[in-house]
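REQUEST
  id: r-88c1
  op: predict_structure
  target: Putative DNA recombinase RecG
  payload:
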Amino acid sequence: MFDREGEQIEFKKSTAELKEAVISLCAMLNKSGRGSVYFGVKNDGTVVGQQVGKTSTTDIANEIKNHIKPNIYPNIVVLKENNLDYISVEVHGTERPYSAYGKYYTRVDDQDQAIDNNELRKLFQTNEFTNLTWEKELTKYGEDEVDEQLLINYVRKAYDLGKFPHLFNSVKESLIRLDLMENNRLNNAGYYLFSKNKPITVKLGKFLTDERITLIDNIRFEGNIFECINRSIEYILKNINQVYVYEDLRRVPRPEIPVKAIREIVVNSFVHMRITSGDYNEISIFPSEVRIYNPGHFPLNTIPANFAEGKISSKPMNPLIATTLYRNNLVENFGTGFQTVFSLCDKNNIKYSYDISNFGFTFSFYRKKTDNDFLSVHENSKDIEFENKNILKNMNLTSLEENILNYCDKNEKISSLTELADEFNMAWITMQRAVSKLVKKNILKRVGSNKIGYWVRIDK
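RESPONSE
  id: r-88c1
  status: 200
  body:
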């Protein structure tokens, strides 16, 4: 026998009331951050029993997983009283507001009530809309968890950019100064940014047609936030077309979608994602579209155009992560990302769209059709194009490596990786890896010391 129902407890006679139970769990999460539902118990608390089959608990778990957003992970237990089976379902969550079946609810005593727009707006406009509290929660991990070289590179670039006033001295000191460590433990933001043990996953896929049916490439990439951002951008650039133009008689490949626009949306997807939701960021490449999805809420009654027009200030879901990326130039200026993307798309005649739902945010770039005109170059440069194509083909270079070599030829040298990263609007570590590969291929060489040296082409 139980006590009466209340703000954190609900009784259901059987799983025939499963949908109502899921709504109750959602309401309790929004009101108290926790709640319990018991199947096989009458409203007065009397245990009457629940038939438990092989899939009973699985069916409950799947219903909760599929219909409460952000995702939560219930604790489901089959209990027994007076030889009667009944099922206990407990949930805990800190990522309010939660929705069930696309709607928001709260708990008033023992009743579930739909949240009206005014109340929902208050939820979104308070600090509860952000994950700042979650970001600062301490993990069990210490400095041994950190990718030290990544942190060194990060601090060096942030210092060079004038966005972090301290040089690297130690892992612990740098993380404390970045507000990513306390009491010798990484907080959640520090863990997901700098962990060397692949804490998050991004799904990368390429489809044969514009329908999500036939996958011709399917990758689940695991890494920290920096690694996932870099891999996502690289994957898109690898799988879209290039427009070739000539600058100073040199063949320069340009992606059909501006790199800066791609970078802004990809970075934005990680700044605003709900990392603990159990869902993943996704990059989907179709013949006519590049689709970028993240599991995160968008502020109520707002659209990206509001931010682009400067009507609303920036509201990143993960402000500490956003600040860390800002210091490294992955986030340039808060609140200007959509304005930059829209401007670049309009300038390059690229259509785009976005979709805001209870499940997350999706941004789509629409691709141009590939035809002869799309890949054409100036007629008087055909001989140079043919020669360069064969040389580059023999070198087996990526488009990024081609870009770096063209930049080096144009400027006669590469003075610093920071300079290169700013030129191509990509991460410092991505430039470091690309230049290192060109050195290994005996195409570039380092001249001078580590402090004041530079890279040049090796004469062939």
